[in-house]
Write a structure and sequence with these properties.
Largest sheet: 6 strands, parallel
Distance between the termini: 33 Å
Strand order of the largest sheet: 3-2-1-4-5-6
Radius of gyration: 21 Å
Oligomer: single chain
Number of strands: 12
Helix content: 25-40%
Strand content: 5-15%
Number of helices: 11
Structural class: alpha/beta
Shape: globular
Length: 375
């Protein structure tokens, strides 16, 4: 039987530097008998020659479109906007199973082309938990940008935070933010920011808390909330009493009461200056931070939130690929988590993680409106 071929495509989203496969994971799969094609990419955090040295076959950027149909296309972010049918099995974040804006049009491309979407968010073990996620470094990077935004607002009031620099390593990011906070404290009566993290016990929340500590925010200034604290239902005045709010709560299929609202933000005495929604699904009806409708970017990391009341200016961070800020560390971690499942791709029609993901895909295809359903 011919070996199973994985084709790592280049990412097209601006400033997306992460990779679903690291050179080490590519080498491990090659040792298992898989064939690995890697598209050349100048944007990816790993250099092409790192994959070449691992033994992967380098192919032209964008060549996945013409790859044999039995090749499995591996990527991270969704594909560029198009109505072209998709004929391959794809491993990626599809962002189309929670009725997000444009979900039906995107999902229909797979259905019409006879392809298949293995959505990374829905690759789960027998216990129902995701087998791989960028959660830790999403929270870590979200806290970094949120603290940058706080420090900038204190040090340079009434001006927007500029583009977020690219940092070669996580420690360099930590030191940069630590210096920004120290500088801002000189304009803030020597006070550190008070941060509240929701979902603090999960991987994402742990990353946010760890970054705050690494950047010099004392543990006494970090309010760590999880299910026990949010069980009573929002909105929560503890959020508006903090300087920075970082939401790391996973957005599931069922609605929950909002954590903040425009009314809660308008109440007297608000201290909150920065909201970072790491979960970042502004177009979902279930969004528990319903105070924004647009994504931000690393070039324009914040947007102003127009609120009433006597509080300070409020800015929103809603970047949907935060781990790209620490792309190498995030990609190394993610690909190692995904590796045990990737090793089972040659048995994907009978192996649990892949059959479960295919079932989720098929169930969502059945939900497609008539105009998008396959003929």
């Amino acid at each position: 039987m011919a070996p199973t071929t994985l084709h790592l495509r280049s990412e097209t989203k601006n400033l997306e530097r992460r990779s679903a496969l690291s050179p080490d994971v590519a080498k491990a799969l090659l040792q298992e008998g898989y064939k690995i094609n890697v598209e050349r990419s100048s944007a990816r955090i790993y250099q092409d020659d790192e994959f070449d040295k691992a033994g992967a076959n380098l192919v032209p950027e964008g060549s996945w479109v013409e790859a044999p149909r039995d090749h499995i296309i591996v990527g991270l972010k969704e594909l560029p906007d198009s109505d072209e049918p998709l004929h391959h099995a794809h491993i990626q974040f599809g962002h189309c199973y929670k009725e997000q804006e444009g979900w039906a049009r995107y999902l229909s491309r797979f259905a019409r082309g006879g392809g298949l979407l293995y959505d990374i968010e829905f690759l789960t073990g027998e216990n129902g938990r995701r087998v791989a996620a960028f959660g830790y470094y999403a929270g870590y990077a979200g806290a970094a940008v949120a603290l940058m935004a706080w420090a900038h607002q204190i040090s340079s009031p009434n001006t927007a935070l500029g583009p977020v620099p690219i940092y070669p390593t996580a420690p360099e990011l930590e030191q940069s933010v630590k210096k920004s906070i120290a500088s801002a404290m000189g304009h803030n009566n020597g006070q550190q920011p008070r941060v509240i993290v929701l979902g603090a016990l999960g991987r994402c929340g742990s990353g946010a808390v760890d970054f705050c500590l690494a950047a010099g925010v004392p543990e006494s200034s970090i309010l760590k909330w999880d299910m026990a604290e949010t069980a009573r239902g929002g909105p929560f005045h503890e959020i508006t009493s903090a300087d920075v709010f970082i939401n790391c709560v996973y957005l599931g299929p069922n609605p929950i009461q909002p954590f903040v609202t425009f009314d809660s933000l308008a109440e007297p005495g608000r201290k909150l200056r920065v909201v970072c929604d790491v979960s970042c699904d502004p177009n979902s009806a279930h969004n528990p931070v319903p105070i924004y409708t647009k994504y931000t970017t690393f070039q324009k990391p914040t947007l102003p939130v127009e609120v009433k009341g006597d509080g300070p200016p409020l800015t929103m961070v809603s970047i949907d690929h935060l781990p790209s800020l620490v792309a190498r560390e995030a990609s190394d971690d993610f690909s190692k988590l995904l590796l045990p499942s990737l090793k089972k791709l040659d048995r994907r029609y009978e192996e649990g993680v892949w059959t479960r993901a295919q079932k989720v895909y098929e169930e969502n295809v059945k939900k497609l409106p008539a105009e998008f359903a396959p003929k």
